[in-house]
Design brief:
The complex is a heterodimer of chains A (168) and B (104). With 168 residues, chain A is mainly alpha-helical. Helix content of chain B is 75%, strand content 0%. In chain B, helix 1 runs antiparallel to helix 2. The chains are: A mainly alpha (168), B mainly alpha (104). Chains A and B meet through helix 1, helix 2, helix 3, helix 4 and helix 5 of A and helix 1, helix 2 and helix 3 of B.
Chain lengths: 168, 104
């Protein structure tokens, strides 16, 4: 059951990611990115990260992607034209990226110790519920959490300053 | 291999593939918004690695790291899209080739 779910949603994620790269219209890319995020949320759930799965859906697929689509609509973004680069240069990138995946695959296979597989039944009661994540967030990681609030405040101020209309 | 479990390396491989596809989108696309979405895809791929290792170590720390990545991504999206709005207001263009005056 776990393997079927993994393969289904992993292939959906990869297909959506390829679609993100290949589509020329930004709206199609944004919808593909939502597909990636939703399937990743399912995979987080399979890994026992319930809180992160919910946050992925609410924060990423909800809030951030709505912001993206809002900006695409606002700017009336059109599909992009020809890049003006030769097709040889474009073709050269594909083997380089494939080689990069190959190197990562080699490192994973060579250095990852032999472990048991991931399964919903075999996670031994390890579930990243909101209470478990929150307990650690507010004790061990309290300082980074508080610094995050300053970061968000600065981000809000920056967004307002950048996007405001000039008042003369 | 049974159907009841998935090797840990598959999750890491998926993460690597998604990350490389994010790099490909970042390098190939010419639209600022699509380039920005490719960066979000890379952040998502790294999040998957965090959660996978968190499962393996049976520690909740990886979940917290990916939570922080989400927070940073939200802040980054707000500021980045505001920058894109400003660039569009000044240049009437979303092509990154038109915004290269700081390149040289």
């Amino acid at each position: 059951m776990d393997a079927i779910l993994f393969i289904a949603f992993a292939s959906f994620a990869i297909a959506s990611a390829i679609s993100l790269v290949v589509q020329t219209h930004p709206i199609s890319s944004a919808l593909s990115l939502i597909g990636v995020m939703v399937s990743l949320a399912v995979l987080y759930f399979l890994l026992g990260a319930e809180f992160i799965a919910a946050a992925q859906l609410v924060v990423y697929a909800g809030a951030i992607m709505v912001l993206f689509i809002f900006v695409i609509m606002l700017l009336n973004a059109d599909s992009e034209g020809p890049t003006g680069r030769s097709w040889r240069v474009n073709l050269l990138g594909i083997p380089l990226l494939a080689a990069f995946v190959g190197i990562i695959a080699f490192v994973i296979q060579a250095f990852l110790p032999k472990t048991e597989g991931v399964s919903l039944a075999g996670r031994d009661g390890f579930v990243g519920t909101a209470s478990l994540v929150g307990a650690k967030l507010f004790t061990v990681y309290l300082l980074p959490f508080e610094v995050t609030s300053v970061l968000i405040l600065i981000a809000i101020l920056g967004a307002i300053v950048l996007a405001r209309k000039e008042i003369d | 291999m049974t159907f009841n479990s998935v090797p840990l390396s598959w999750y890491l491989m998926l993460s690597a593939i998604l990350f490389v596809l994010g790099i490909a989108g970042f390098l190939y696309r010419r639209n600022v918004i699509t380039v920005f979405m490719s960066i979000e895809l890379m952040l998502n791929a790294v999040n998957l690695s965090f959660v996978t290792f968190s499962y393996q170590l049976k520690q909740v720390d990886g979940h917290i790291f990916s939570f922080f990545v989400m927070v940073v991504a939200a802040a980054e999206a707000a500021v980045g899209l505001a920058i894109i709005l400003t660039v569009f207001k000044n240049r009437q263009s979303l092509r990154i080739d038109d915004v290269s005056s700081m390149k040289y």
